[in-house]
Amino acid sequence: MNGIVGQLVLKDWQIMRKYVIAYWLGGIASILIAIFGGEGLGIAAMILFVTALGAVGIHAIMQTIVVERTEHKLPLIMSLPVTIREYTLSKIIINLSIFTSVWATLSGASLVILFAGEEGMPDGMLPFVCIVLVAMYFAYTIMLVTALVSNGLGATIVATVVGNIGTQMGLWQLVDLTGIQSTIDGPVAAWNSTHAGILLVLIAGILVLLLGSVYLRFQKRDVL
Amino acid sequence: MNFAIKCQGVVKRYPHFTLDHVDLMVEEGSVMGFVGPNGAGKSTTMRILMGLVCQDEGAVDVLGHSMPAEQIAAKRDIGFISEDMRLFESETIGFHMNFFKSVYPSWDDGYADDLLKRFGLIRGQKTKGLSHGQRVKTLLLLVLARRPRLLVLDEPTTGLDPVARREILDQLMHIIEDETRTILFSSHNTLDVEQISDSISFILNGRIIDSKDKETFLDSWRRIRLQVPEDFRLPQHDGVIDIKHSGSLAVLTTRDFTEEMIADLKSDGSSVQAVERMTLEEIFVANAQQARNEVAS
């Protein structure tokens, strides 16, 4: 990371850090509720978990990319000795860092809680839960690249809605696949080619989306 | 002669506007006023100078760097303020100062503190609560404290109250004392431009319609009020861009005034009632009118 990219990332982190900590605490709270709240609060814990994970991604994208343009902070930043490429890199780094740190922490914690011990979910569900978590990252990536390429509020909101609905519908379809159905209720986590294939497609999709957005941004000749 | 800015044949095409073969030369150490109505192309030109917008044709050289290719090197020495530029509202003035300091090794803490006091700004104040005048002062502080060689100011005084405008202009006058600094200053307020500029360029509909040093503008433009005999036909003079004739009174506007012109008018039988100097605003309006007439014809 060169000097100016680092400074831009640090600037965005300083602006976002209090919100990130709040969302992270919200996610941790959801996990604690799941552990200690009993069955009655299970749904509340899940809603809080999904909200914290979704909100941190949306908030960071809106604050660091969309609002920077719509509220005319971009001329200030682009008057600095920075190119559109360095600016784009800084936005990808800060957004992926924020989301990945919260996503990884909460995903890891939730996997432990869901599957550790005798009273957890059947281990057969583990591959599908992993797919759900990676799909959430995929939906987030759709939002991020749309914001990066369009810089527009409308397009980013549409991408958020379409990405989330599309991901949920996609997951509903996946549950019916034989490769998923055959293992989901089992006592052990039985990974098969269906699980691996879906994860591979999602991860490849995330990489293609990110690289594509970088390519498109690098083609732009006008910043304002 | 060294030029801080050299634009030659710059073209930028948008669906409903074209910056049309703009030539703009700003001498190092000088202040150029860039005057034009809204939508004339001032901001587009300045964004091209900053490398924020890429020209479709033409060459742009800023502080010896070709733009936009060498924008990193150029922007280290350029301070840019535009009227629509905003600060990060959730943060303080001090946050912005620290951020700019981290980017520019040339940041001068002492000068920054001096400007804070002079502008009546408070380091810990959140920028959300700043007035328009305070925001412009903060931007000027952020730009000046790193001591750039070139200031590109896009309508910095637009919308300011008279007191804030005076403070900003005073600060710019102070900067001008350092003769190594160059300023390109755009405005549609000709009074501001007249006060601080050494040279002036007029832009209209994407074209530079006139560009000279300020004194030449003010010395060469005149409005001449004449009393003329009935059926008198005013003689043709180079540089006369407008003649209004009503009965025995005529008003003639020239962009190329000489004393010989008065002698000629008198010898042709007209009586010169007054020879009036024109303000920069009147010169711009007359210039713009002439440019429009040329396009129409």
Can you put this structure into words, describing what you see?
The complex is a heterodimer of chains A (224) and B (297). By secondary structure, chain A is mostly helical. Chain A is 81% helix and 0% strand. Chain A has helices at residues 3-36, 42-70, 74-78, 84-115, 126-150, 153-175, 178-184, 193-219. In chain A, α4 runs antiparallel to α5 and α5 (126-150) runs antiparallel to α6. The longest helix of chain A has 34 residues, at 3-36. Chain A is globular and about 60 Å long. Chain B has 297 residues and is α/β, with parallel strands linked by helices. Helix content of chain B is 34%, strand content 31%. In chain B, the strands form 3 sheets. Chain B has a 6-stranded mixed β-sheet with strand order 6-7-8-3-9-10, with helices on both faces. Chain B has a 4-stranded antiparallel β-sheet with strand order 2-1-4-5. Chain B has a 4-stranded antiparallel β-sheet with strand order 12-13-11-14, with helices on both faces. In chain B, a hairpin with a 2-residue loop joins β1 (3-14) and β2 (17-27). Chain B is elongated. The two termini of chain B are 38 Å apart. The relative contact order of chain B is 0.14. Chain A binds chain B through residues 4, 7, 10-11, 14-15, 71-73, 75-76, 78-83, 221-224, and chain B through 47, 50, 52-54, 68, 71-73, 75-76, 78-80, 82, 84-91, 95, 99-100, 102-103, 139.
What structural category arises from helix and sheet content of chain B?
alpha/beta
Helix/sheet category of chain A: mainly alpha
Strand order of the largest sheet of chain B: 6-7-8-3-9-10
The whole-number mean of residue pLDDT values of chain B reads 89
Q: Strand content of the residues of chain A, in percent?
A: under 5%
Strand count, sense and barrel status of the largest sheet of chain B are: 6 strands, mixed
**Element-level helix/strand string of chain B:** EEEHEEHEHHHEHEHEEHEEEHEH
Number of helices of chain B: 10
Biggest interface found: A-B, 21 and 29 residues
